[in-house]
Fold this protein.
Amino acid sequence: MARQSVLQAVNDVSAQRVGVEGGDSLGFDFSLKKLDPQRYAGLHHPGDAYAYDIFTQVAQAMRDEPGVERVLAAGQSQSGIRLAEYVGSWLPAHPEAAGVIDGFLVHGNVPGAKAFAAASPVPVLQLLCGPVTLPRLWHI
């Protein structure tokens, strides 16, 4: 049996304005410009209306790298909510973006109906977790 090597890469995307420009909506500011003002001084985020476009462009840039076979997206908590909106609303309205991301993991109990994955042209796994008293094993 031939052994295959697997190349894995992780890329964190600050697609929302507050992640780049800053703000203390949560009582603290961990934005790129706050953490490294010199490095990120030239960045300008046009606003959250562009967040899904930015997210898709980053995914496409990753896909274009030599050796990349699959691009997966994951989000938890607020990022999970945004990812569910991306899958359920933005992606169906932008069919040209279908296929840029091969699958999604939405972690958390996002508000609203849980049928957002039905509109997705690619697989979506939603992981819900809460208080656990017994070990659980999922086969996926």
Notes: The first strand starts at residue 72 and ends at 76.
